[in-house]
Every structure is written in C-alpha cells, then in structure tokens.
Amino acid sequence: MRFLTLAAFLLACGPSSETDEAAPLVESQQALTEGAPLTTHDASCLKLQDQNTWSTYPSYMTPVGPALGLSTVLQDLNRAGPMLTASTRPPAVGYKGGFRWNDGDMATTEWIPQALTAGTSGSANVAIVSWHYAPTTAPEKGVRISVADISDMAASAVSYRHVLLVRPTSSGNFTTIPEHGGGLAWFGNSLYMADTSDGMRVFDLTQIREVDTSTTCETQIGHVGSVWCAYGYKYVLPQVSAYVVPSSITSPCRPKFSFLGKDTRGSTDVVLSGEYCNNTGTSCPYDGSTPGLGGRLYRWPMDSATSRLKTVSGLVSPERAYVMNEPNVQGVAPIMTSTATTSYWLSSTRYGGALFKVSTSASRTAYLSGSSQWARMPEGMHATGSGTNLWTVTEGVSGVTSPSLGGRVVFFAAQASLD
To answer: Which of 28, 104, 187, 229 is 20 to 30 Å from 255 by CA-CA measure?
Structure first.
C-alpha cells in the first residue's frame, strides 16, 4: 500500500475559479446557496487506490462453476414488469415510456431500488437497477441487481431477473456485499457500484456464476456442502476489484460515494461520483455553515480500452470536482445534448422528488414532483449517448404500490423536452 505517497495531498480542499485550475487551495468553506451554479472544487487532496484483485477474485470463483456472460442471464429472465400506461405512469415533463416491477417487487419492504445504469449486450438494450436489502435483522443479503431487457418498450411488459452481488473470500467461497448500492455505472464489461464510505467496487459482467436454488440455499450464502448458495438466487455477480480512499485521507477531503453516473462526452470517459447530504440528519464533510448543500460531484477518468480507472502508481486522481449547491441528491447524468462537461442532470428527493438541470454558468432549472413535472422519490439516472433519452428509477414512496401515485417505476423522458 502506497499511503506514504499521499502525504503531499492531505491539504484542505476548497472552491476555485472555473478558469483557474491552478488557483491556491482555500482552507475556509464558503457560504453555499441552494440552486446556485456548480462551484468548481479543488480536489487535489483526494486519491483512490486500486485494490488490484483483478486476477485473485476471479480465480477464487473458478470452483463455483464456469463463468457466464450477461447474455446467459438475458436468455433466462423470469419476471415480467408491466408497461406503464397513460393512467398508470407518473407525471414527468417529456415522458416517453416506462415499466413497473411485478406485484411482489412493487410491494416488498425487504428490498428498495436505488441506482440505474444502462447499456447493450449483443443486440439487446439492457437496464441494470440495484436494490439494497432493508431489514435490520440477520442475515444480511446485501445488494442485488435487476437485469432488464428494455429492447422493445412497445411490448406489454419488460422481462427481468434479479442477480445477487457477492464478494469472493477464498477459493470456492464468497459472501454478500453489505452496502447501500446507491450508484451504478456500466462501462464495457465492468459494472461500478458506489461503496458509501470507501469508494467504488467493480464487478465483471463476464464472471456471472450459476448457483443452487434448492430449499437448502434459501437461507445460506457461499459454499454449503457440495453446492454453492446465494439465498435462493440462481445467479451471482462477483466483485473483481475496488478503488478505495486510503485511510490516511480524512474529512473534509474524504468524501462519501452515494451515487454514480457515466459521462462519455469528453475525450476521456469518466465515472461520476457524488455525495448525498441533507439539512437534517445526513450532513456532508463540506457543508460548513449551510448543511445539506455541500455535496460534491467528482469526475474519475476511465481507460476505455480496459474499462478500468486511469491509475498512476496504483492511484487515481479526480479529473475535476464541483460543489453541487443542491440537497438530497440521489443520482447524476450528463446533459448529452451539450458537449460541455460542466452541465448535468441531478436527481433529488428534495421537495418529495425533483430533477435539477445544473451547470457552472447558470442557476438550476427545476422540475418538481409537487408541480407534476417529475416523479416522486427519484434515484439513479442514465442518459443515452445519443442525447435522446434520460432514464431514471424511483425507490417508491413507502407503502405506495400505485405507479402513478409514487410506486416504484423505471421510465425515460425526452432530453429535448427538458432542455
């Protein structure tokens, strides 16, 4: 571990001029204003370290069975999510289409949807949604993802299947991942997931394994006798590595990783990461005198050839960072109709649900659920590369199963209508 190389970076981070990236660090935090333009933030103190288990973790999974690709799961989808209609869809400016989950997934209190990312597998368009396990009693089932085939949004339903995320622990064994699963970003075969306190975990979509679904496995995880179990799930997706904030980096430099996004607008693809904070019980390190507004947004450069973050001596530096000046942010997506990498969509549960259009040059534009402009309780987002559609998932209002009134949905809207 190269913690000694980080000593030079343990300085106070602060705002800087958008046009002067070499501006000196500011040690005191400025007052923040809700809805103000993004503030450029000096993040030179922050680094991520590659845990470098890219070979070790897959080798641990070899005894479990042959590695399967995402295409195998797409041929074995076992649930149907009805399409939303004019009477069942939530209100949203530019709404184009969407689906809800099946009745059991709409009503369950054990699992709650969080993040969304999307991409292609062969000829299929695919959405991947994460769910975190809600009960506080054992066993901890961690995070699952829903793999949904969204190729034909004119059909009567979307087919999908849940897959459990796991972390290999030794040869032939694995365990659950007790995280919130608040953010996803899909690049190539790599699926990035936010690890709230520590950074980002990475999963390889070519390393899916089929496991046992007998009664024996419904309450167990890992190697059990002669079989492998995953609490009854048929497929597991194993972690292959992680990028973590070294323990020597502390607050306020050390951020939270609440949500993720994918930005392909610039010369280098980036993973976006951001902090959720509010003005009541969940503060952020940079909140200062205005709690809830100091959530930061980071751009992490990607090596497109490997779908891994760009490292120097095993360390990753953020390409750019901003203070969002928005509370309760749950997701981010780039505004693909703009080539500037200084403008974004932010998904927020502020006001019961909102979509904010933000940039470094103008105050926000808000689409509010209370004004029937956006869905309630929105979470992760994905903007299609063409700049056509903006996808989002909602976590659902507690106890509500009607999709038009705040129940869990996945939908997309026209970016042009929102611009």
So the answer is: 187
The β-bridge partners of 241 are 202
Q: Is the pLDDT of residue 90 over 60?
A: yes
Domain count, the chain: 1
Question: Would the pTM count as exceeding 0.90?
Answer: yes
Closest CA to 243 of 303, 329, 330, 323: 303
CA 70/CA 75 separation, integer angstroms: 9
Q: Is 219 helix (H, G, I), strand (E, B) or coil?
A: helix
Give the whole-number percent of the chain exceeding pLDDT 90. 86
Q: Which domain holds residue 262?
A: 33-418
Residue 154 lies in a domain: yes
How does DSSP assign 47-113, residue by residue? -EEE---TTHHHHHHGGG---B-HHHHHTT--EEEEBP-TTTSPP-TTEEEEEE--HHHHH-SSEEE
What's 252's domain CATH number? 2.115.10
Residues with Cβ < 8 Å from 79, sequence gap 6 or more? 101, 102, 105, 159, 160, 161, 162
Tell whether 24 is covered by a domain.
no
Q: Is residue 63 part of a domain?
A: yes
What is the C-alpha to C-alpha distance for residues 193 and 204, in angstroms, rounded to an integer?
A: 11
- 72, exposed or middle or buried, with CB in 10 Å at 0-12, 13-18, 19+? middle
Q: Which of 54, 272, 70, 300 is nearest to 188 (CA)?
A: 70
Question: Are the C-beta atoms of 199 and 48 separated by less than 8 Å?
Answer: yes
Say yes or no to pLDDT of 391 above 60.
yes
